[in-house]
Amino acid sequence: MANKPNEASKLSGILAAAKAENRAALIGYLPGGFPTVDGGIRAINALIEGGCDVVEVGLPHSDPVLDGAVIQTADDIALRGGVRIKDVLRTVQEVATAHPEAAVLVMTYWNPVDRYGTARFAADLAAAGGAGCILPDLPVEESEEWRKAADEHGLDTVFVVAPSSKDPRLAEVTAAGSGFVYAAAVMGVTGTRNQVGSLAEDLVARTRATTDLPVCVGLGVSTAEQAAEVAGFADGVIVGSAFVKRILEAGDDEAAALDAVRALAGDLAAGVRRR
Amino acid sequence: MSDKSAKDYLPGAQVPDARGYFGAYGGRFIPEALVAAVEQVAEEYEKAKADPAFTAELDALLKDYTGRPSPLTDVHRFSAEAGGARVLLKREDLNHTGSHKINNVLGQALLTRRMGKTRIIAETGAGQHGVATATACALFGFDCTIYMGEVDTQRQALNVARMRMLGAEVVSVKSGSRTLKDAINEAFRDWVANVDSTHYLFGTVAGPHPFPMMVRDFHRVIGVEARQQVLDRTGRLPDAVVACVGGGSNAMGIFHEFIPDAGVRLIGCEAAGEGADTPKHAATLTKGDPGVLHGSRTYVLQDEDGQTIESHSISAGLDYPGVGPEHAWLKDTGRAEYRPVTDDAAMQALRLLSRTEGIIPAIESAHALAGALELGRELGPEATILVSLSGRGDKDMHTAAEYFGLYDDPAGGSAHDAAHGGK
Ligand SMILES: Cc1ncc(COP(=O)(O)O)c(C=O)c1O
Q1: Domain A10-272, what architecture?
Q2: Which residues partner with B147 through β-bridges?
Q3: pLDDT of B411 over the 90 cut
Q4: For position B66, what pLDDT does the model report?
Q5: In this predicted structure, what is the pLDDT of residue B11?
Q6: What average pLDDT is seen over chain B?
Q7: Fewer CB near the terminus (10 Å): N or C of chain B?
């Protein structure tokens, strides 16, 4: 095993603490600027208040190739509302300030970072109190410049592995990453699914064989039952579309939206403790 | 006539490097879930192009099914409008299915069979790549799903019917700008979910490595044939080669064999829509900036946050805010030039070729014709200009009829006079 978990990072510390409690960590995702910049900040805070240990702030993109209909809709709303990269960075800052106990990551397609400037983005994300980045369309081969910048600013880089990743490839990917490894539960785009399926458990086992990093599972997890199931074999459970859906369903009623995502986070937090 | 076959021209190209870079452009910006599939395509393509059985089968298909070699046509009456320069058309419109797209499709269809996959998906803008793909799927017995932006299903309705007649499922994509960019997004989403059974038969020289290289190689036959045909016909190389550029596949196909011929200018015509200085255009190389779109680093129409800006063109096949990475490289090195051509210039050229030569071109190809008219007037009667006539215009008759008023008006009068006057 080539790598050691980055003991110093905030993200690693939070995941280690969950492990010490003999439970999986709960990681929640929402796009920044959705439904508005300030509304989004309140929603992400509600995720943490409900029980998320880590949050991923999505950077809405014009071409969300890896997202299903739910997150596409949210990205559209955010972009039509005029959300900018600086608003996403402000979201990170406000959430990190309000909740120093949580780790705040950014999840983004590569082109916005590339355009903003790799070094500048890493510097500004770190300055905002961000803990790291997930870059789902930046494979390891293209990531050297980013990882240098991230290391310089103490940011973790979380790489995604997929059921289609072969074992030698898993070793390459996990050796390059830090914080945790994001194991995609299914082959497909984001969205809620009825079943987690058998691919995830096998992928987690194969990934574990290559690294000491925690392995967290996402894509399709939406209920407390699924969270408990995944917590049985993974170090963390990642939930995104289910939160977005709650906010979409609440329409203009922000109080109802915040209650709904807080309640869902609470259910899921109970789930990850039920393993 | 060229005696070169696929076994000669497929391995003949030097770039890109092993990671798929043409200078600073190209690469592979894809999700981990697609890495294994894209590597499989790259490995299988390397094996195939060294396999005499593969190249022989491709040659036979190109000859007996597509009808290659495509002719080279002197267009004397059209040339008179191009400053008297001698204009020669490489007639990809005469290929089976009506455009250059079939060259790449047959190559990738053979590759799909070698990989043991049974389902093909593709994006399409003008519908020509979709029709060619649906055609190959009928021929080989593959399941076929084609993604097409809703705007394009309307303006290229004839091709939607053709694809369905051939047995393909056509999915109308309603996200984003509802054009080619969004059709590609949706095809990628399908591929991630179905990669075990499915090959994504990408239709232009963009996307992650090896697609820009492989699609170019399958289209190199255009330039390999045309270079020899021009030499045989005129006794010398042309002064310029002109092609329209959407993603850039017909242009790369006809340019590539001429790249070492330093005296031959390579000119790509991009869609300038209502004008490259208006917000409504698709002139990616003229107005875009380097970035990452659909799997490779290239020029992209984007805002300062890296969000893609929607493109506009009367031509569905050129209405795309990205471009193949090899074109980005050819632009930066200065080996090729790229010029914007407006909707109106293209439509006037479409009508001119129809009326002077009896050839109705696709609106995409008409952008190259408009470029040739402009260039001919610059170069004068001594010059020879080779133009890629990438497709035929049947699919565009509705757009053209509305543009020029060719339909009888419902009140009972005839639009005949308006057609002469034009717009
Ligand atoms: C006839 C024709 N020419 C050109 C194009 C543009 O594609 P490319 O730039 O890849 O040649 C299309 C695309 O649909 C087409 O149908």
Answers
A1: Alpha-Beta Barrel (3.20)
A2: B123, B171
A3: no
A4: 98
A5: 64
A6: 95
A7: N
Which of A84, A116, A164 minimises the CB distance to B195? A164
Say if A61 is an interface residue toward chain B (CB within 8 Å): yes
How far, CA to CA in Å, does A108 sit from each of A81, A153, B136, B174, B329? 18, 18, 37, 23, 27
B288 and B175, same structural domain?
no
Per-domain residue ranges of chain A: 10-272
The verdict on residue B17 lying in a domain is no
Answer yes or no: is B3 within a domain.
no
ipTM over 0.90: yes
* B392 CA closest ligand 1 atom index: 1
Amino acid at B16: P
Among candidate residues B176, B211, B246, the one where a domain is terminated = B211
Residue B412 is assigned to a structural domain of this protein: no
DSSP B49-107: HT-HHHHHHHHHHIIIII-PSPPEEE-HHHHHHTTTPEEEEEEGGGSTTSBTHHHHHHH
> pLDDT-derived band of residue B409, with 50, 70 and 90 as boundaries?
confident
Residues B177 and B88 grouped into a single domain? no
CA distance, residue B282 to nearest chain A CA (Å): 17
User: B386: domain range?
Assistant: 72-97+219-404
Name residues of chain A where pLDDT drops below 50.
Answer: 1-6
State the pLDDT at residue A196.
81
pLDDT of amino acid B423? 40
Give the number of the atom of ligand 1 that is nearest the alpha carbon of residue B251: 11
The torsion defined by the Cα of A128, A216, A33 and A73, in degrees rounded to 10, comes to: 160
Among B211, B239, B267, where does a domain finish?
B211
Q: Is B174 on the interface with A (CB under 8 A)?
A: no
Q: A79 in contact with B at a CB cutoff of 8 Å? A: yes
B364 is catalytic: no
Put simply, the answer to whether A113 touches B306 (Cβ < 8 Å) is yes
